């Protein structure tokens, strides 16, 4: 009986090992271009402007894993963007890029993408050394803004000592809140931006789209009324003050045509 019991136990363990191996193989087989969500992508409810001026590169952004590695690591950043400032030639840095001041985006003003209230500030964290790998636990200088819709914008990796707002302060759209830096888990100066719905434990990541931005595709610039940029594109803010009937375009959105101003609440069509 004892021998029979041991044999049965080994058989059960073998089946579990095989099942675990099968599940792991299926997970590995998911293509990098797969969407980060099977259900419709939840849309932000606030009309946003880009949180900066000038030309920036989208180094990570989009709704597929190939476009956006954030979806593999942090659920609340699954639709986040990494934006890097560039010069007129589209370059990120001069020289060997081993100093923060080599980077064209370093020190550029970071702006509130829409009106709201400051709900969190982390300041005083040092810049990381570019082109080195800091620990994933490194804390970034951060500003979080809660918009009137309930959406929350998070702006990370800010320059040490550059934050000029405080918790509880009301900010206007396009108001400077800090400067681009390299604090926290960052290998080069850039802005990490993500949008969430709510502040409670059940908050979710939502896809941000921006009003009246210019997007470069294959060397040609086109203007988009409301657009969520993706990895590899160059972007800049256009004239966002215009009123117009606006139909969303670009990455998957399910919104409706509305007349907008920055900070105005919109419906997400769900």
Report what the structure shows.
Strand 5 (142-146) and strand 6 (151-156) form a beta hairpin. This protein is globular. It has helices at residues 2-29, 70-73; strands at 56-60, 81-85, 109-111, 116-122, 142-146, 151-156, 170-171, 176-179, 191-197, 204-206, 210-217, 220-227, 234-237, 245-246, 258-259. Strands 1, 2, 4, 5, 6, 7, 9, 10, 11, 12 and 13 form an eleven-stranded antiparallel β-sheet that branches. It has a two-stranded antiparallel sheet with strand order 3-8. The chain has two domains: 1-30; 36-270, Glucose Permease (Domain IIA) (Distorted Sandwich). Mean pLDDT is 81; it is low at 1-37 and 243-270. The termini are far apart. With 270 residues, the protein is an alpha+beta fold.
Task: Summarize it.
This protein is an alpha+beta fold and 270 residues long. The chain has two helices and 15 strands.
Key structural traits:
alpha+beta; two-stranded antiparallel sheet; 2 helices; disordered N terminus
How is the topology of this model organized?
Blueprint: H1 2-29, E1 56-60, H2 70-73, E2 81-85, E3 109-111, E4 116-122, E5 142-146, E6 151-156, E7 170-171, E8 176-179, E9 191-197, E10 204-206, E11 210-217, E12 220-227, E13 234-237, E14 245-246, E15 258-259
Antiparallel strand pairs: 1-2, 1-13, 2-9, 3-8, 4-5, 4-7, 5-6, 6-9, 9-10, 11-12, 11-13, 14-15
């Amino acid at each position: 009986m004892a021998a029979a019991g041991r044999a049965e136990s080994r058989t059960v363990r073998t089946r579990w090992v095989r099942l675990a191996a099968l599940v792991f193989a299926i997970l590995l087989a998911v293509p990098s271009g797969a969407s980060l969500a099977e259900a419709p992508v939840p849309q932000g409810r606030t009309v946003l402007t880009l949180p900066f001026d000038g030309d920036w590169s989208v180094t990570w952004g989009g709704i597929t894993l190939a476009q956006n590695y954030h979806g593999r690591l942090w659920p609340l950043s699954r639709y986040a963007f990494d934006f890097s400032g560039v010069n007129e030639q589209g370059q990120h840095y001069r020289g060997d890029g081993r100093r923060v001041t080599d980077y064209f985006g370093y020190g550029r003003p970071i702006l509130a993408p829409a009106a709201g209230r400051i709900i969190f500030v982390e300041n005083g964290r040092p810049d990381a050394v570019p082109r080195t790998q800091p620990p994933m636990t490194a804390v970034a200088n951060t500003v979080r803004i809660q918009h009137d819709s309930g959406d929350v914008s998070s702006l990370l990796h800010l320059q040490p000592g550059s934050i000029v707002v405080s918790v509880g302060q009301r900010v206007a759209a396009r108001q400077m809140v800090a400067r681009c830096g390299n604090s926290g888990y960052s290998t080069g100066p850039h802005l990490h931006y993500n949008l969430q719905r709510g502040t409670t434990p059940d908050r979710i990541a939502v896809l941000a789209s921006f009003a009246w931005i210019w997007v470069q595709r294959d060397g040609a610039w086109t203007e988009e009324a409301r657009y969520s940029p993706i990895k590899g594109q160059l972007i800049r803010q256009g004239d966002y003050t215009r009123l117009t009937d606006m139909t969303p375009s670009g990455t998957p959105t399910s919104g409706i045509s509305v007349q907008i101003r920055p900070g105005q609440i919109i419906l997400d069509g769900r």
